[in-house]
TrEMBL record:
It comes from the Eukaryota. It comes from Coptotermes formosanus (Formosan subterranean termite). The keyword Endoplasmic reticulum applies. This is Cytochrome P450. It is found in: Endoplasmic reticulum membrane; Microsome membrane. It holds the Pfam family p450. It is a peripheral membrane protein. InterPro entries: Cyt_P450, Cyt_P450_CS, Cyt_P450_E_grp-I, Cyt_P450_sf, Cytochrome_P450_Monoox. Keywords: Endoplasmic reticulum, Heme, Iron, Membrane, Metal-binding, Microsome, Monooxygenase, Oxidoreductase, Transmembrane, Transmembrane helix. The keyword Thylakoid does not apply. Its cofactor is heme.
């Protein structure tokens, strides 16, 4: 009896899996022939009489929930009536269905893929052998393919079909298409950490939430945060003082803590004091999580959850996640907050933070979000959005700012120009930076833009196609993934002559180029929501530090070796030495 129940449970799992395929075939076929409404009704009709579910009950379920209900009714039936023969027959039926579905989809995809240039692929594994090695090797392989074949370039990683694009016109087609809004399947490895926040959310959730969240990033609201940016930059200057005259230090460490403090304060109104406590535990945990997720993305054998969980990397991933959750118990809210939603916030945001107190009465991201959305977001969604803002905003901004310091330390003439600009805005005054000052920092902005061109922290992004799209006269089929090669297009001499040279003047307003040839924040409807925030914060940090210190380094541009752990980083860190400036110290 026990064996029978075990067999039934096992097969139920398999049937669950195949049921998804069966319903998706029906849905695909009906969708093609009669549109979404009819598809929905037909699938329900086919399933309902067989399993005796009331039609109204199923009809109210939305599409994702739908599979689940079908599976549950199957499970009930199976557990009651399971016999080995019936189980085997069911298995064979679903296997056949699965195979037919696979062939049907794959044949069409293979036919369209054959029309796109790319390296020849082996059966089953595709081009996976070419993508073995470290993440840097993978980037190099993609770059080699882009040079060897005409873009778009097609390649297979096992059963998954990828198309890499690097021409601005193709990138525009993809990034502005409503059929390319879904993130690629590898982004789901971030979900245990970020939940369904904007970055990882499926399109159905993203569409609603992006509309709700966008107003909280409007320029007037962001300008109110500049005093927080300035205050944190001042703390950074004080912390850096101990490095003056002490040789080179990795400036990233300092900037990362500064941007963490800034983002926590402006996103949630929480004073984390990572800079004061030099408390880098959260930073270390998120750094490891990013590295592990990046390795997993590029190693196909780590994709199935059950395999990943068994590996040392999977176990460390679970440990780091548990660690960020554990922070819940270490939070210390000191002062009551003026916002009515505090009890709710207190309960849900504690997992992200270290020692905190709520002393700020300014409206921050989360207040605005609650004001705008009322009870639209449940606790889980609010937590996912706040965690996403911290994760997506902190490391990106810190890495980019560190690159700016390193590049300006190498290019002394440009650094002097920035310093002169600061002198013309501030004179000898030690006053803090205001949003009006930031608007006048034109040359610094050019330097930041040029650094982002040479070192885009997101060198590649990938989208999953929910419909066919046509790129450079070839059809890229539904179900494929498109890789947007941001770094490649940034270094293309056709758009940026002498691409290895640091020339901030390229970004003067008179120099026109294709709008999709420069994409440090991506582009289109699913671009970076925090781009203005990031620019203001980077300008505040760089200007404040450069008003106080001159930065130098022993590195040359050719010494900057790059690696990727989700973000593009410098292998040797960001070593700079600091000398005090005459006027501001
Ligand atoms: C220099 C700093 C930054 C850079 C270079 C950057 C770059 C990017 C890029 C390239 C994407 C698109 C990713 C993709 O499609 O896979 C993105 C998305 C995103 N970024 Fe940023 N980012 C920066 C700072 C920030 C900041 C400060 C925040 C928030 C405070 C933020 C929040 C987000 C979010 C929420 C998304 C997902 C948007 C969506 O899918 O609708 N980013 N960022």
């Amino acid at each position: 009896m026990e064996r029978q129940v075990f067999a039934a449970e096992l097969v139920t799992k398999i049937v669950e899996y195949f049921t998804c395929f069966a319903t998706s075939i029906l849905r695909d076929v009906c969708l093609k022939q009669r549109g979404p409404e009819a598809a929905y009704a037909d699938v329900l009709f086919l399933v309902t009489p067989a399993y005796g579910q009331p039609l109204s009950y199923l009809y109210h379920a939305h599409f994702e929930g739908f599979h689940l209900r079908v599976m549950l009714s199957l499970q009930g039936t199976l557990l009651q009536q399971c016999s080995v023969v019936m189980v085997l027959l069911l298995l064979i039926f679903f296997l056949l269905l699965f195979y037919a579905h696979f062939r049907f989809r794959r044949q069409r995809m293979e036919a369209l893929a054959a029309k796109i240039s790319g390296p020849p692929a082996w059966p089953f594994i595709g081009n996976a052998l070419q993508f073995l090695g470290t993440i840097q090797d993978v980037l190099r392989t993609i770059s080699r393919l882009l040079h060897r074949y005409q873009t778009p370039v097609a390649f297979w990683l096992g059963p998954f079909f990828y198309v890499a694009v690097a021409r601005p016109a193709d990138i525009e087609t993809v990034l502005t298409s409503p059929l390319a809004l879904e993130k690629d399947r590898v982004y789901r490895f971030m979900e245990p950490w970020l939940g369904h926040g904007l970055f990882t959310a499926p399109v159905s959730t993203w569409r609603v939430n992006r509309k709700l969240i966008t107003p909280t990033f409007n320029p007037r609201i962001l300008e109110r945060f500049v005093d927080v940016f300035s205050a944190q930059a001042q703390i950074l200057v004080r912390k850096l003082a101990k490095e003056v005259g002490g040789g080179e230090c990795d400036i990233f460490h300092y900037i990362n803590l500064c941007s963490l403090d800034t983002i926590c304060e402006t996103a949630m109104g929480l004073t984390v004091r990572a800079q004061d406590n030099n408390n880098a535990d959260y930073v270390t945990a998120t750094k490891r999580l990013s590295q592990i997720v990046a390795v997993r993305m590029f190693k196909a054998w780590l994709h199935p959850n059950w395999v990943f969980k068994l590996t040392p990397l999977g176990r460390e991933h679970a440990r780091q996640l548990r660690y960020t959750e554990h922070m819940t118990s270490t939070v210390n809210w000191v002062k009551p907050c003026v916002i009515v939603h505090l009890p709710r916030l207190r309960k849900i945001f504690t997992s992200c933070l270290l020692m905190t107190d709520r002393t700020i009465t300014r409206k921050v991201f989360i207040d605005l979000l609650l004001e705008l959305t009322g009870t639209t977001f449940n606790d889980e969604q609010l937590k996912a959005e706040a965690t996403t803002m911290i994760a997506a905003g902190n490391d990106t901004t810190a890495t980019m700012t560190s690159f700016v310091f390193l590049v300006l330390a190498i290019h002394q003439a440009e650094q002097e120009k920035v310093y002169e600009e600061m002198r013309s805005i501030f004179g000898d005054s030690k006053r803090v930076t205001t949003s009006r000052d930031l608007r006048q920092m034109d040359y610094l902005e050019l330097c930041i833009k040029e650094t982002m061109r040479m070192f885009p922290v997101a060198p590649l992004i990938a989208r999953y196609l929910t419909g066919d799209i046509t790129v450079s006269d070839v059809v890229v089929p539904t179900g494929s993934s498109v890789v947007i090669c941001i770094q490649h297009v940034h270094m293309d001499p056709e758009h940026f002559p002498e691409p290895n040279k640091f020339i901030p003047e390229r970004f003067l307003p008179d120099n026109k180029r294709h709008p999709f040839s420069y994409l440090p924040f991506s582009a289109g409807p699913r671009n970076c929501i925090g781009l203005r925030y990031a620019m203001l914060l980077m300008k505040t940090i760089v200007s404040t530090v450069l008003r106080h210190y001159k930065v130098t380094t022993s590195l040359k541009m050719a010494d900057i070796l790059l690696k990727v752990d989700i973000l593009l980083k410098s292998v040797r860190g960001y070593p700079v030495a600091l000398e005090p400036r005459r006027y501001n110290n």
